[in-house]
Every structure is written in C-alpha cells, then in structure tokens.
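pinging the channel bc i need a second pair of eyes. not urgent but kinda urgent?? the chain im working w is below, pasted from the shared doc
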Amino acid sequence: MLKLAVLGLLQREPLNGYRLKQQLEMFMSCSICVNYGGIYPLLKRMEEQEQLMLCGEEVQEGGQCGKVYQITPLGKKTWYQEMLAYPHESWVNARSRFLIKFFFFGYLLPEERVQLIEHRLMSCRLRLVEKKALEITDDLYRAKLQKRAIEVIQSEIEWLVEQLQTEQLQLAQTPLTSKTFEVS
C-alpha cells in the first residue's frame, strides 16, 4: 500500500523522502502508517526497479541534503496496474487500500472509478452480512463493539452508494474520451 501511495504522490511532483513522509501523513494517515524506516528502503528498491529516478537534491530542515525522486514511465505503469488490482488481503488492509486509491481517483477514468467503487461496495455488503450473522449475547462489550462495527460498515456502504451515483452521473454525461492517464 505504501508503494501505491508513494507512486501516486510522485505523479504530482518530485519529492524527497522527508517531504514524501509529510504528505503521506497529512493526506493518508487514516489509512496508512508511515515511518522513515519504511520510506527510505522503499524508495531505494523502487529506484533499483526503475519505477523512480533521482532528479536532484535539495537542502532539508537541519541543513541536510535530501535526494529528490520523480516517477518514471515504468513507475506510472506500475501505479496504474496497482490502482486497478484487487489483491487478496485482510478486511482492514482492503479498506485502507481503497481509501488510498480513492485519494488518487482524479487520475482515473470515470468507468475505472465506478468499477473500483462497485468492487468495494460488494465487499462491504458481504462483510455486513457476515457481521450481522454473528450474534454476540455472552458479553455486553463485545456486543457493543459488534454493533459499532455494523454501523461503520453501513456508513461506508451509504458513502459508497453516494460516490457511485456521482460517478455514474458523470459517466452518463461524459462522451467517450481518451484516457486521461498516460503510460508512456
């Protein structure tokens, strides 16, 4: 997930590790945990895999120089593939991944956004059925937590339905267009 978020942010502008961490924390702290011990090794691996390239250095706070990275065409292609992928993962990770993807929805076509929302909506509805099937009566606090979990899923479903309606309306009003995302 961190890789998806890093590639997405680097599409906007080149960044060094420190500024990248700041932006990740500012925009995605509800869905991803960020620390320098994860960022810098990831940037190095992504540079080795030619998804990023070093484009300079800039002086950071404290006078140190920081490497500035920019996304490569291969990095854009990788990001795009990960945006449209549905990896098999835990409920918590799938929720976080969807929120990260939603943050970058502006880079996708309306029909791609619809597809991602529909997939998440289906997952939430299935999870709701599972949660409602679990009847907890032996412990007051577990029962309260179960009720809260159901409320959270129902709230997410309502929000997803709103987003889906918005995207479908936009899709209906938009003539067929060429892809806004380029994988050069």
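so Residues 135 and 143 are 8 Å apart (CA to CA). and The longest strand covers residues 52-59. — does that match what u expected or am i reading it wrong
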